[in-house]
Specification:
single chain; mainly alpha; 4 helices; 4% strand; globular
C-alpha cells in the first residue's frame, strides 16, 4: 500500500503547480520534490523499488524528516502569505506524517 501512496505523492507534487496555480518558488519546489520522491521510491528496498539500494527503514527516516519539513517550508522560504501554497505544503506534510505513522518500516514485505 505504501508504494501506491508514494506514487500518488509524486503525481500530486507534479500536478499541484498547475492545478493550484502556485507561484514560482512553491511550484519549483513541488517539481523538485516530485523528482526526489520518485527517486527515493524507485531506489527503496520494498516491492515498488526498482534499484533497491535504500533500506526501507531509511526510506521511513527520510519521510519522518520530510513530513515536518513540508509544514515548515512555507515559513522558511517566505511564501506563507500565499494561502493555497501554504495550505498545500502543510496538508502534504500532515499526510506524509500520517502515512509514516501507519507504515511499519521494519517489516520486510515480499516482492
Amino acid at each position: 500500500m505504501h508504494g501506491y501512496l508514494d506514487f500518488l505523492t509524486v503525481i500530486l507534487f507534479l500536478l499541484a503547480p498547475t492545478l493550484l496555480d502556485l507561484s514560482q518558488v512553491p511550484a519549483m519546489l513541488a517539481y523538485g520534490l516530485a523528482v526526489i520522491h520518485l527517486i527515493v521510491t524507485l531506489a527503496s528496498d520494498f516491492p515498488f523499488g526498482v534499484i533497491k539500494i535504500i533500506p526501507f527503514p531509511i526510506h521511513g527516516w527520510i519521510e519522518r524528516i520530510v513530513g515536518p519539513s513540508l509544514i515548515a517550508v512555507p515559513f522558511i522560504l517566505g511564501f506563507a502569505n500565499e494561502e493555497i501554497a501554504r495550505n498545500f505544503y502543510i496538508a502534504a506534510g500532515l499526510v506524509i506524517i500520517a502515512v509514516g505513522v501507519l507504515t511499519d518500516y521494519q517489516s520486510k514485505a515480499k516482492d
